[in-house]
Design a protein that fits this description.
The complex is a heterotrimer of chains A (144), B (663) and C (111).
Chain A: E1 2-10, E2 13-18, E3 22-27, E4 41-47, E5 50-56, H1 57-60, E6 73-79, E7 82-88, E8 94-98, H2 107-112, E9 117-123, E10 126-131, H3 133-136, H4 139-143
Parallel strand pairs in A: 2-10, 5-7
Antiparallel strand pairs in A: 1-2, 1-8, 3-6, 4-5, 6-7, 9-10
Chain B: H1 2-37, H2 43-63, H3 66-84, H4 91-112, H5 122-130, H6 148-151, H7 154-165, E1 169-175, H8 179-183, H9 188-196, E2 199-208, E3 219-227, H10 231-237, E4 245-247, H11 262-265, H12 278-307, H13 313-337, E5 338-340, H14 341-344, H15 346-355, E6 363-368, E7 373-375, H16 376-397, H17 401-406, E8 413-422, E9 426-433, H18 440-447, H19 454-461, H20 469-474, H21 482-492, E10 496-502, E11 506-514, E12 518-527, E13 530-535, E14 541-544, E15 550-552, E16 563-567, E17 570-576, H22 577-580, E18 592-598, E19 601-607, E20 609-618, E21 631-636, E22 642-646, H23 648-652
Chain C: H1 2-9, H2 23-32, E1 38-41, H3 49-58, E2 67-71, H4 76-85, E3 89-92, H5 97-110
Parallel strand pairs in C: 1-2, 2-3
The chains are: A mainly beta (144), B alpha+beta (663), C alpha/beta (111).
């Protein structure tokens, strides 16, 4: 079966996230730094009247920070009752992915990336890493 | 023994109220101190201060705590003299005032701790008796005070003289015009007849003042009135609080101004209602939050006890009961803040009546809101948005009778307002009309970009600057003020705005707003290039670092350095907020220190500069990722970006565990 | 008077009018909203026209607002008094539609 996914770039890799987890995409200028919040949190932004924490995926994925650009997007996701933003280098398209082609990530990647990638798939000659959103927004922080 | 229990209960109330009065008196004195430096007058603050002291004196009197009565009384005399002389309090009087308030606070603490209360310091009482309050700087003119003298004609003066001879009371009412008021139909044109019903208006004079929160339009109207009505009635006529009603002294020797007693403010309206200032409910709510926090601590300790093997069943049972009681209390306070939506919408009927033109354009307003209720603070902010929507519907959406009949519609247009309580403590209000609807394609052509659906159309309509009169008429549109509607609904109230429109058939706007919001008074400041706000109520003092003696205290190499600043003969420990929050470079730019009281002791935080004072809506940070220690929420100061609300007292708790991160 | 002024100014195009019933109301509206021009009748209940002009000129945001005064008293002394108080233009009643149109056009283009 196939389902819609939003694709985005962080560093050189291309990722995918199930569109049903995505509320909307926002452009990004800056976030309000929150002292004492986890290091991978870029800060708070106000989206349609609500305060939303933004997870900087570059920091989350252990990449060096780069200068912000107009391509930066915040993907606002909703997991259960939680709403959070994912700051990505760019995000342009929504694609239909055939889930039967999803394969578990190589074990080494899985252990090095704390389970952020739940599947990999090659479609239309592109390698896409399907991310585990609850992990990205730190469900483990909640249960720590 | 029952007597002791009763007293103890009463003591709790006394302490809570006294603490609050001490905090507001301190804030008032500091405000006056700052104003003095700038050469400005704070007459209203002086008046508030007088009332606060008066109330405190009464409370302490009831409790039989003589030293507090004496202290409050001595300073009250100073403030009263200043108030009568036009509201100027000298720097020395402010200084003594702060000492008095401090002395009172110490004695309140003693009562709380069940310790003996020290006598009032004689030296301070003596000095208060001698201090020049500032009264001598203003000499009341032979006639009427507050500058009326120069503004009256000979015949108006005569009117005053006759009234005073007859023993009647003269008042100066100060009406503050504002955009919000005007939207509710409150203007000098409506206020004047309302006041005229209560007495004789001798003169109305405009007064230009610097723009401020108290005078948003930079304009006040003074009404000189002879009236036998009560202060509360007069205040109601100008839709204001009693502090905008000032009884006048006519001849310097004749009589002293009669200040409205505190209980006059809570004027009974009808038998079973008490009008309560919203601020008091806010205080209650704040105290409730403190209670919730201490309950969490209690639970933590019970859990710890349980871990160490103790039998905590009885304790846990009490804690559970207390938890339910807290929830009930919270619900009770929320209920007390609620007003009926039907009542909130009343001005809209008047608005509709004033806008329709019988025989040309007729409109029926249909309000269907059942018994829904809404937080007063939300209602006050929401009403201007509803006024805009209804006005637009009548001006632009509903067609004239001729046009409606041609289209086979009923003669009179219909506007329907309905609401129901939605999920998540939200109220959903819809405003529908059966008018022209908004022509999406026409607007799309006008702005030169496609508008695929009603959501895109609404986004376009609510873009500020989009609304031009031409657009409004040309497209039978909804340009006017739609950006304001959106700002109120989304930014100010954290709600949602949506629209469905059908050309020829009508438009429905739906506003989802929270049933209740927290509004607090805050100071904003900058620290290491970040802006923050703190509740005014938690700040005991703000001082200039340059103006006090400072020494660097000793500290371990990796610990947070403490500076000691001398304030009123006492050392106050001060830490760098920027360093504590790890905001980057050590705050060598710091110019000011904010002082809070933690565990009864003063504690200062350095900041770079103060930005201002505002009333803001605080939003909770719902997701744990956005939270940090000492971060109590966030607000929008108008730039569309969140500004964090800090709890400095909680942050102070992190000082001892702070360690420098060695890179 | 109000409808007449509106009718006279129609040729200018898309203008929106608000009428204040007294001097105090005028002052209040000026403080609350933004206008491009004031047409002021000197003869008003409560506050006099001169007082309104003086108030307008005492306000920072209104200092440059064009004020066109309309009055039945067309003598030189009145004219001087009004212009000294800070009015930008002066028109004695009765006037022709073209006159007020020209005055308003002039004041709006100067602003």
């Amino acid at each position: 079966m196939s389902s819609l996914h939003v694709t985005f770039r962080v560093g050189t890799a291309e990722y995918a996230i199930n569109a049903s987890d995505v509320l909307h995409l926002e452009s990004f200028t800056e976030a309000t730094h929150v002292p004492g919040a986890p290091a991978f949190v870029a800060g708070l932004v106000q989206v349609r009247g609500k305060l939303v924490p933004v997870v900087d995926l570059r920091t989350r994925f252990g990449l060096a920070p780069i200068e912000r650009s107009l391509d930066n997007r915040v993907i606002v996701v909703k997991i259960g009752t939680r709403v959070a933003g994912l700051l990505v280098d760019s995000s342009r398209e929504v694609v239909k992915l055939d889930e039967s082609t999803f394969e578990p990530p190589p074990e080494l990647l899985d252990s090095q990336a704390s389970g952020y990638v739940k599947a990999v798939t090659t479609q239309a000659k592109r390698l896409l890493l399907v991310v585990d959103v609850p992990r990205l927004i730190g469900e483990e922080v909640l249960h720590a | 023994m029952a007597e002791t229990v009763d007293l103890r209960e009463f003591v709790g109330g006394f302490i809570a109220e006294s603490d609050q009065i001490v905090a507001s008196a301190t804030a008032g004195l500091l405000e006056i101190e700052q104003a003095n430096v700038r050469g400005e007058l704070r007459a209203k603050t002086v008046r508030d201060l007088f009332r606060a002291l008066h109330t405190l004196k009464g409370l302490a009197g009831m409790m039989g705590i003589q030293p507090i009565v004496e202290l409050a009384h001595a300073f009250e005399n100073v403030v009263r003299a200043a108030d009568q002389a036009g509201g100027r309090l000298t720097a020395r009087a402010v200084e003594l005032g702060l000492m008095t308030v401090r002395a009172i606070a110490e004695r309140v603490r003693a009562v709380a701790d069940n310790k003996p209360v020290a006598a009032a310091p004689e030296a301070l009482i003596d000095e208060l008796a001698r201090v020049d309050s500032g009264a001598s700087t203003t000499t009341a003119a032979s006639g009427i005070s507050t500058g009326w003298d120069r503004r009256l004609s000979a015949s108006e003066r005569q009117q005053v003289a006759v009234a005073v001879d007859a023993g009647r009371t003269l008042y100066t009412l100060t009406f503050t015009p504002s955009e919000q008021g005007a939207a509710r139909g409150l203007s000098i044109a409506t206020v004047r007849p309302a006041v005229a019903k209560l007495g004789e208006i001798i003169k109305v004079a405009p007064r230009a003042v610097p723009q401020s929160a108290e005078a948003p339009a930079g304009l006040l109207f003074d009404l000189l009135v002879i009236s036998d009505a009560t202060v509360a009635q007069l205040a109601e006529a100008i839709a204001s609080t009693p502090d905008h009603v000032e009884p006048l002294v006519v001849s310097a020797a004749a009589q002293l101004p009669v200040l409205p007693a505190a209980d006059e403010e809570v004027a009974p309206i009808g038998r079973s209602f008490v009008r309560v200032e919203l601020a008091r409910l806010d205080d209650l709510q704040e105290q409730l939050s403190a209670l919730v926090v201490s309950r969490f601590r209690l639970e933590r300790h019970i859990a710890k006890l349980a871990e160490s093997g103790a039998d905590v069943r009885a304790l846990r049972e009490i804690a559970d009961v207390q938890g339910r009681q807290l929830r009930d209390l919270r619900r009770g306070i929320l209920r007390a803040r609620m007003v009926r939506v039907a009542e909130v919408l009343e001005p809209l009927s008047l608005l509709v009546r004033s806008l329709v033109k019988p025989g040309v354009k007729e409109v029926k307003l249909d309000i269907d809101v059942h018994d829904s209720e809404l937080d007063k603070a939300v209602a006050d902010r929401l009403l201007p948005a509803l006024v805009h929507l209804v006005r637009n519907a009548i001006d632009h959406a509903i067609e004239p009778i001729v046009e409606r009949e041609r289209a086979g519609k009923p003669r009179a247009g219909k506007i329907r307002i309905a609401c129901f309580e939605g999920a998540g403590n939200q109220l959903e209000l819809s405003i529908s009309d059966d008018g022209r609807g908004v022509d999406r394609h026409a607007i799309a052509r006008r702005v030169g970009k496609p508008l695929e659906d009603d959501t895109a159309l609404l986004d376009q309509l609510t873009t500020s600057g989009f609304s031009t009169r031409a657009t409004a008429t040309e497209t039978s549109g909804r340009g006017l003020g739609m950006d304001i509607v959106k700002r109120i609904t989304v930014r100010d109230l954290g709600g949602e705005l949506s629209m469905i429109t059908d050309v020829g058939a009508g438009t429905t706007f739906t506003l989802k707003v929270p049933l209740t919001i927290a509004i607090i008074d805050v100071f904003s400041f900058e620290c290491a290039k970040h802006s923050f706000v703190v509740p005014v109520a938690t700040i005991e003092e703000i001082f200039d670092l340059a103006e006090c003696k400072r020494v660097e205290g000793p500290s371990e190499r990796d610990r947070l350095p403490i500076t000691l600043c001398e304030r009123r003969g006492r050392p106050v420990p001060v830490v760098s907020l920027g360093t504590l929050l790890r905001l980057g470079q050590p705050a060598s730019n710091a110019t000011k220190a904010l002082v809070v009281r933690r565990n009864g002791e003063p504690l200062g935080f350095t900041v770079d500069r103060m930005l201002g004072r505002h009333e803001v809506v605080v939003r909770p940070i719902e997701d744990v990722l956005g939270r940090g220690p000492g971060v109590a929420g966030a607000t929008d100061l108008g730039d569309g970006k969140p500004t964090l609300l800090l709890d400095l007292v909680e942050l102070g708790g992190g000082i001892t565990s702070w360690r420098e991160v060695l890179s | 008077m109000r409808d007449m002024v509106a009718a006279c100014l129609r040729p200018i195009g898309e203008l929106s009018f608000e009428f204040a019933g007294s001097g105090l109301e005028a002052i209040e509206r000026l403080a609350l909203s933004n206008y491009e021009l004031v047409v002021l009748d000197l003869n008003m209940p409560d506050v006099g026209g001169i007082e309104v002009i003086e108030f307008i000129r005492s306000q920072d945001k209104l200092r440059t607002l064009p004020i066109l005064v309309v009055t039945t008293r067309g003598d030189d002394a009145s004219r001087t008094r009004v212009l000294e108080a800070g009015a930008s233009g002066f028109l004695a009643k009765p006037f022709q539609p073209e006159q007020i149109l020209a005055e308003v056009r002039g004041l709006l283009s100067n602003a």
